[in-house]
Amino acid sequence: MPRKEEQFNKNLASFFDEVSDLDATPLSDIILSNKERYYDFNFYCEGGLKKIYRCKDRKTGREVAMASLKDELSDARKESFFREARLSASLQHPNIVPVYDIGIKDDSPWFTMKFISGQSLDELIKQEPPLSQKLDIFIRICDAIAYAHSRGIIHLDLKPDNIRISEYGNVVVVDWGLGQIMASDCDEELLECYSFNSHDLDTMTVDGNIKGTPGYMAPEQTSLIKNKKAPHTDIFSLGCILYTLLTAKKPFTGSDLNDVIKKTAECTFDAPSKRRPELEIPAPLEAVCLKAMSANPTDRYQSVTELQKEILKYRDGFATAAENASLLKLLQLWFRRHKSLSIVSILALLLSMAAIIAVMNNLKLAEINALQLAEKLRIEKDYAIKINKESAPRFLARAEYAFRIFNFEDTANFADSAVELDPSLKDAWRLKGELHFIAQEFNSALEAFSKSNVNPALIQVCKKYSLIKNKDSDHLKLSQYLALFQDCIKEKLKAQVAGLMHKMAYSDLSIDDRINFCKGIISVHNKLMTIHFKYDKQTKTLDMSNNPEIITALAIQNFPCEIANLSYTSISNLICFRAQPLEELNISNTKVVELHSLDNNGLRKLNISHTSIPNLTRLHGSQIEELDISHTNVQNLTFVPEMPKLKRLTVHKGQFPESEISRLPKTINLTIK
């Protein structure tokens, strides 16, 4: 090619390079643009409540994962969703998925995090990788959980499916949705992640009182064992993961869910070597696994670091503490680690038995020193607790607030933290006793009350029912429960009356048990001999109308009805309808005077006729299609434009001027009584 033509081609290429550079959008313009930050969404996977999408971040140019709620859910679930995001964002560790951003779009919450390509540990186990690779992964999982525990956070849903392994071998722990904060150990800013929502049952992997995943949860995560959830709970789940790494099987299996839960509570499972005898599972690892999965939390490893060190010992050829190795076993391991020196070592052993005995004595001395160091650390910790004694009232205040809004789990956590920091705090013991009383654990309640100042009437009621029900693990029969409720009313124990009713209302009851509970409580509470209470299971219709003696019906909270009729009763507020999936509600001819406590977003039909309700501001933006306001104190129709779904409106004659009625939209069918 002629020289001039070659030079021309070079200049032409340079020109196109310059044009390309000029045509590219400056990065500053991209960052400052008003376009949506996240785009190019592709569905990736979904879990119990969340959907995960892969998308691009316009500002950083990287691919991220965006989590969002699957459906339009309650404010409680949204709060739980944000709590998970904030809690995850507070954990900065290479083996914990980092959260980048949190927000709300169209009333739907979301958060973005690092996208981890690859597979779950559950998927990897099915490929039967070598033991060394599985142990390396387990060590990194321990790194993540040990760090989380140091920040005062426990995971409570550890399982192979929540461990992600990237294409390049990075190990990341995900899904902190059930994560819990240990109030006495966490940083001050993490306390805001504590949930005070009494109805937040949506983070449960299993419905009811069980939070965790069957097959990998600890006994104290079932409703059958009354132990506090703490770091030892995660340690048990780590033991379950190690069990699966060794056997490729879950430790707890059964014919159905209840069978699995029962075996978990009883800690009944086959040892790994018995479950898979053909695999020749190393005895030291089995011993470590079994210790981590001890039924009694005090028999487990007392920290994740302690468990991790055992795995490192095995990997590096040392004896684990769990196997309680003999002298012969220690020597065998030593020879394996130092094969090149074996012959020399044998000769040295024969010639220097006395020296070896001295070494063993030194090892014993080192063990004594280690125990002394542990005791010193314990003393230092006790001293630190004493120094922080002034923090106990703050935890007590949070416990009392949680108790007032019926968040009994948070109450227990904060009250436990308060007495840990200051065992002499009588009000904290009183609160613990009241929790036990509400849970029908009367012996435990009396023990806690003995360390506090309590209403003597409450003590007498507690003693009475401790004789009726000797075991705290048992439950009162309905007739006994109603008698207890009546005794509390008689002695004017308002907090206990409210607590007993609320705990039962939000328990996992069958529909027949719930009907009997509601009828019994309403009868006792309102001193009724008979009650009109009818429930149609097919249409989910609850009819309690024409009971003028009913003043309070709080027991029907959380009742699974879609249609409710409490007309011609004497109820004065709408608190009794909390947590109900109501679509139709009739409270006509009642003493209700306001709607601000109406918290049923799915309501389509509402009848408030013949009440003293004057204001419909609470209904603005609602989905109500049919509304009866005849013979109420509502004096204008300014609410109509604020109810876009309204199709049928009932008023009484002369309630509004004709000029105002004439301005109603033609889409509304007006009925005048």
TrEMBL record:
The chain crosses the membrane at residues 341-360. GO terms for molecular function: kinase activity. SMART domains: S_TKc (SM00220). InterPro entries: Kinase-like_dom_sf, LRR_dom_sf, Prot_kinase_dom, TPR-like_helical_dom_sf. PROSITE patterns: PROTEIN_KINASE_DOM. Keywords: ATP-binding, Kinase, Membrane, Nucleotide-binding, Transferase, Transmembrane, Transmembrane helix. Residues 38-312 form the Protein kinase domain. It holds the Pfam family Pkinase. Gene3D superfamilies: Ribonuclease Inhibitor, Tetratricopeptide repeat domain, Transferase(Phosphotransferase) domain 1. CDD domains: STKc_PknB_like. This is Protein kinase. It comes from Lentisphaera profundi.
